[in-house]
Amino acid sequence: MKPFLLLASRAEDEAAEDEYRAYLRYGGLEPGQLHRVRMEAGPLLELELSRYSGVIVGGSPFTSSDPSEHKTDTQHRVERELAALLDRVVAEDFPFLGACYGVGTLGRHQGAVIDRTYGEGLGGVTIKLTEEGLVDPLLRGLPESFTAFTGHKEACTVLPAHAVLLASSAACPVHMFRIKTNLYATQFHPELDAEGLITRIDIYRHAGYFPPESAEMLMEDARQFAATEPMKILRNFVERYAS
User: Fold this and answer.
1) C-alpha distance from residue 37 to each of 17, 69, 124, 187, 242 (Å)
2) Residue 51 to residues 3, 95, 183, 184: CA-CA distances in angstroms?
3) What does the mean pLDDT of the chain come to?
């Protein structure tokens, strides 16, 4: 089997390793089957897509809708490199799954309006599938409604006309969409369980997602949710596109 490619951009080693282990575990992959590139660490080298079964973009501390002058040089570089890669991925309809940051990257690349209108705090939310979502192969085996973990400052306000809306929540109308046949983005985290969320709350308590003094309460709240259904998306992605 060709490996999958995980494009990560978390600078904190603990968060980066926890994310990588989650994609391995819930994707049913061995380390040799998931090639990770930490984009924040240095320039993205030229990628030969034919070497991979599919591309996954993990979550990120970067907020794509921030004003340009507020972005670091590293964020500008990562955004340029992802945009160039998406030019190729979209043209080929190459298997792609972007989690959280995928909405800000694939969405903006395809003309979506991404802003802070529908941001959601860290915690569990109820995701509801659309009619199209109920029959989409990447959502095979998921119920119409399920719990997933979120935590995002920005979201999609307006989808481009050629995108297919697959899932929403009460507070965020675009939680998952598809472009063409094989290009997907989720706003929720399909790799994230309660312990993973607790780890991120601890790591990002001073990152502006929530008041730092509320971290312990958020950790306790996370323990009240069981998010088990979203992980099926990762397994479905792997099973569908492994080549």
Assistant:
1) 12, 26, 28, 21, 19
2) 8, 12, 18, 20
3) 95
Contacts of 23 (CB under 8 A, 6+ apart): 6, 29, 34, 56, 58, 191, 234
What is the token pair recorded at 80?
A: 């340029």
| Alpha-carbon gap, residue 29 to 46, rounded angstroms | 24
Beta bridge partners of 165: 177
For residues 174 and 104, give the distance between their C-alpha atoms in angstroms, rounded to a whole number: 12
Helices vs strands, H then E, count in the chain: 8, 11
Pairing of the two strands 183-186 and 176-179: antiparallel
For 33-83, the pLDDT digits (tens) are 999 999 999 999 989 999 999 999 999 989 999 999 999 999 999 999 999
Confidence of residue 186 (pLDDT cuts 50, 70, 90): very high
Residue-level length of the chain: 243
CA distance 124 to 197: 10
pLDDT at 12 (0 to 100): 93
CATH of 4-241, one of 3.40.50.150, 3.40.50.880, 1.10.238.10, 3.40.190.10: 3.40.50.880
Gyration radius of the chain's alpha carbons: 16
